[in-house]
Design a protein that fits this description.
Helices cover 43% and strands 21% of the residues. The chain has 6 helices and 7 strands; from the N terminus they run H-E-H-E-E-E-E-E-E-H-H-H-H. Strands 1, 2, 3, 4, 5, 6 and 7 form a 7-stranded antiparallel β-sheet that branches.
Length: 182
């Protein structure tokens, strides 16, 4: 019995260690956030690192897109559309952990990403760890939802969903201009 418990704990740890190489949490450099926010006000503030602006990286339209996370708020229970991906503890949907704001995702070059190390010794770190585990479990679904939202916004920018979302084409164009200027 003790060996089974040790083995399953060890396997869980090794599986998480392996999966962590596949997906990370990121923050974005302040200057890049400021530049992108000047183009689209739906991009959230970075608050100079005082309040972490943590998100995940998705591939949409062949580009890296940064999608920010938000901790759980009761008003999120009323959201029933494609703009957010709701997070909860894996195996416990009643323990709500927040959302990924897919509608606020924006393209970002690799050199603007800062990988986040999760410190699970405090409440915030444990929250991030729980979010991370659920995101890993749901990564294909999150990726599909992001692509679906992107396509929907491009087809009808003036729709309700389009008005709630970043201007993906404008931001992509700005990113391409920045790359060409280098």
């Amino acid at each position: 019995m003790w060996i089974e418990k040790w083995y399953s704990h060890e396997c869980h740890f090794l599986c998480l260690k392996f999966m962590s190489a596949l997906l990370h949490f990121y923050t974005i450099k302040n200057d890049f956030i400021t530049k992108m926010k000047s183009l689209d006000s739906k991009i959230q503030n970075n608050y100079d690192g005082k309040r972490p602006y943590i998100g995940v990286l998705l591939v949409v339209n062949g580009l890296n897109y940064y999608a920010p996370l938000s901790s759980y708020k009761e008003k999120q229970d009323r959201i029933n559309n494609i703009t957010v991906f709701k997070l909860h503890e894996k195996g416990n949907p009643n323990n709500k952990l927040g959302v990924i704001h897919i509608n606020n995702m924006f393209p970002v070059p690799d050199d603007q990403l800062i990988a986040v190390t999760i410190d699970i010794t405090d409440d915030y770190g444990r929250l991030l760890q729980n979010q991370y585990e659920y995101i890993l479990h749901s990564q294909d679904e999150i990726q599909q939802q992001a692509q679906q939202l992107y396509d929907l916004v491009l087809k009808n920018k003036n729709s309700f969903i389009g008005r709630l979302s970043c201007d993906f084409k404008l931001l992509e164009s700005a990113l391409n201009q920045q790359k060409n200027a280098l």
